[in-house]
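Re: the 177-residue chain
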Amino acid sequence: MTNKIFWKKIFVSGQKSYIHETKDGYMKKRAKKRQQKELEDDLTANMMQEPVAIYRPVKIIPGNQSFSYSKFEKIARRIPFTQREWASILHLSEKTLQRYAKDNKSFEGIYVDRILHLESLIDMGLEVFTDANAFYDWLKKDKRVLGELLNFDSLKTTNGIELVKNQLGRILHGVYI
């Protein structure tokens, strides 16, 4: 009857050392390079390979302090809303919006959130209509979609903005309801 050899990997003072144990409990240190290489190859062959993570750049959402009126103005210039319409959508008075413009003041958190929602709506609308005036005219018309009335007043609520975006997505993908 032959003695079966079981290999174990141990670490001695930070260096790899290999021992083998026979069935009768005899332990012997083995330091031959060839045997070490074979053992390392066996260990790496049995290791599970981790999937590679893919990282993509994300759009950084600005903080409350960093969203000034000049940033809002860049968004507002893309679509022909009047200052009164912007004030209505943002739930601000026209005079307050004018003060933001005069002082280049930063918007507060709730307004930043609404502006960013509207920015994604404008991006989608310009993708569908390619012309800002055509998109504006479409927003001004009343539309009944899935039992909901969509019009310019829908932009006053986050839910209304999402409903308009959903309808734009349907148009973009050719699903008319």
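DSSP finds seven helices and five strands in the chain.
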